[in-house]
Amino acid sequence: MEFRRIVVVEGGADRKRLQKVLAEPVEIICTNGTVSPYRIEELLAPYEDDQIYVFVDADDSGESIRTLFKRDFPEALHLYTERVYRQVETTPYRTLAAILLAEGFHVHPEFLL
């Protein structure tokens, strides 16, 4: 089985923003807000052999999702937007590109200028 990288975000606007920056095919899964441990397990069951990245907002909702992941999926890697932007969807493209590039993702070069 081929190793994949999966990015978990909170909503569709986050997914669209990341898709615009990424220059490689990456599965992006939306939690659609606060979720239960059961729902997270259900969402991620097909990806148990893949590398999971959690990229949620820097707010209370995002932190509660992140806490669930740290407890139930400790092997997941966490990506953080700067608190000043609060949300992934409002983080500038250049900042998103730098965050993703630091984790080894391929990004479109125009977002690095």
From TrEMBL:
Give the transmembrane region(s): none
- Every copy of the Toprim domain together lies at 4-92
Under which name does UniProt file this protein?
Answer: Toprim domain-containing protein
What is the organism field in this record?
Sporosarcina saromensis
Q: What is the lineage of its organism?
A: Bacteria, Bacillati, Bacillota, Bacilli, Bacillales
